[in-house]
């Protein structure tokens, strides 16, 4: 089941920024993979908190503080429900990068549930965003554990034979993305988590590109930890979430310390709170959580299955259209099934930044560069690509405007081409 074009037009009315123009051209926003636009209901929810309930949470007994705390913890419950988790399994962070760093750093601290050191291994994949690669590189360097990776095939998918070779009895942690921000590939996260479990390893999921775009149930996936971001799913910036099973979070030592995460403090030691508060030191992003709760409401009311269906429809239009343009090379799976509604591509003889500027002159907003995935680009012999990423508010007509503009890129920069 999918959204319909008339429904998408009604959805667009909830996003005022989509009425903006770039010069004389209507804005065509195809950069939701980087950050999504926000509906009025999210903007109003965040403003309402500041207007009516602004106070510190978990620190005061007055009426306003109680209202703020209720809003903050209510948002935790709402977002947990959205991703198929229990409310004490959601930790608020400032972004998904911090969520992943939290797990990686804590696993290297005294009291860690895994024994990392020479002879143990941390496994990642070649398609990872830097946020799910660099922290594991640092953890390996700190502990002496070896860092190994599952390679990519020419089709933009993980090499299945690598999984059986790389994952083994030495694997302590397996970190992998649910969906690639460059290739659009959707991995079978439940299968990868099960593989980790069979060898006794913890699984850590980068869910930044899946939670906004498809139904996700953390309990059903069976992962130990997962990270996702508010700003990619219609919510405010400056907020991330870490999911961890009750057992996994309870086994982690603290990452950041200070106020809000302690029970008692003496001059010689401290006693820390249970998760999730154990990992939320300092002043919390309260209004942002309220905004994210409203975003979860909006997405649920629209229907995640229907959003995913519409994005797959747009994705097929993108994939088919981009492959028909001479001199343009798309990376990632060539079939639309089991992939996100995005395309990353290279235009022969034209740098990605020039492609992006050309498209911007026509009102089309896309992402250019290595998309925080340099090893992935290197795997395909590239240093940069141009990426167009769609969301629930994009239309078929916008995809066609984008494809028409890309078709003109080489003629503009290279001259007459076949």
From TrEMBL:
Keyword Transferase: yes
EC number: 2.8.1.7
GO molecular function, one term: cysteine desulfurase activity
Membrane-crossing residue ranges in chain numbering: none
Catalyzed chemical reaction(s): (sulfur carrier)-H + L-cysteine = (sulfur carrier)-SH + L-alanine
Cofactor entry: pyridoxal 5'-phosphate
Name of a matching Pfam family: Aminotran_5
CDD domains hit by this protein: SufS_like
InterPro entries assigned: Aminotrans_V_dom (IPR000192), Aminotrans_V_PyrdxlP_BS (IPR020578), Cys_dSase_SufS (IPR010970), PyrdxlP-dep_Trfase (IPR015424), PyrdxlP-dep_Trfase_major (IPR015421), PyrdxlP-dep_Trfase_small (IPR015422)
Uppermost EC category: transferase
One GO term (biological process): cysteine metabolic process
Keywords, comma-separated and alphabetical: Lyase, Pyridoxal phosphate, Transferase
Top-level taxon in the UniProt lineage: Bacteria
Limits of the Aminotransferase class V domain: 28-402
Family to which the UniProt record says this protein belongs: Belongs to the class-V pyridoxal-phosphate-dependent aminotransferase family. Csd subfamily.
Role played: Catalyzes the removal of elemental sulfur and selenium atoms from L-cysteine, L-cystine, L-selenocysteine, and L-selenocystine to produce L-alanine.
Protein name (database record): Cysteine desulfurase
Species per Swiss-Prot/TrEMBL record: Spelaeicoccus albus
């Amino acid at each position: 089941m999918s959204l319909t074009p008339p429904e998408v037009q009604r959805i667009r009315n909830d996003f005022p920024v989509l009425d903006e123009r770039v010069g004389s051209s209507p804005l065509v926003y195809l950069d939701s993979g980087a950050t999504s636009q926000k509906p009025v209901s999210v903007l109003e929810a965040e403003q309402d908190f500041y207007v009516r309930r602004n106070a510190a949470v978990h620190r005061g007994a007055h009426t306003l503080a109680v209202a703020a705390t209720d809003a903050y913890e209510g948002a935790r419950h709402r977002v947990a429900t959205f991703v198929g988790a229990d409310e004490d399994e959601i930790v608020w962070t400032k972004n998904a990068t911090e969520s992943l760093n939290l797990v990686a750093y804590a696993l290297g601290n005294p009291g860690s549930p895994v024994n990392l050191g020479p002879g143990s291994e941390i496994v990642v994949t070649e398609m990872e965003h830097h946020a799910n690669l660099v922290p594991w590189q640092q953890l390996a360097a700190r502990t002496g554990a070896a860092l190994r990776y599952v390679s990519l095939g020419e089709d933009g998918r993980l090499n299945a034979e690598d999984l059986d070779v790389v994952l083994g009895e030495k694997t302590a942690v397996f970190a992998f993305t649910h969906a690639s921000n460059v290739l659009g590939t959707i991995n079978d996260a439940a299968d990868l988590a099960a593989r980790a479990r069979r060898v006794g390893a913890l699984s850590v999921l980068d869910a930044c590109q899946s939670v906004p775009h498809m139904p996700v149930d953390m309990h059903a996936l069976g992962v130990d930890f997962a990270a996702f971001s508010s700003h990619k799913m219609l919510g405010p910036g400056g907020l991330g979430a870490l999911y961890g099973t009750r057992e996994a979070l309870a086994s982690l030592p603290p990452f950041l310390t200070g106020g809000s995460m302690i029970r008692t403090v003496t001059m010689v030691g401290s006693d820390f709170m249970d998760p999730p508060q154990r990992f939320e030191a300092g002043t919390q992003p309260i209004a942002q959580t309220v905004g994210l709760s409203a975003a979860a409401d909006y997405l649920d009311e629209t229907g995640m299955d229907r959003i995913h269906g519409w994005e797959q429809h747009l994705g097929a239009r993108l994939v088919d259209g981009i492959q028909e343009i001479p001199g343009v090379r798309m990376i990632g799976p060539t079939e639309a099934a089991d992939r996100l509604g995005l395309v990353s591509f290279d235009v022969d003889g034209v740098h990605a930044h020039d492609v992006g500027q050309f498209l911007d002159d026509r009102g089309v907003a896309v992402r250019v560069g290595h998309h925080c995935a340099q090893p992935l680009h290197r795997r395909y012999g590239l240093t940069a690509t141009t990426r167009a990423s769609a969301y629930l508010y994009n239309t078929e007509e916008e995809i066609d405007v984008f494809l028409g503009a890309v078709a003109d890129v080489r003629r503009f920069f290279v001259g007459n081409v076949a």
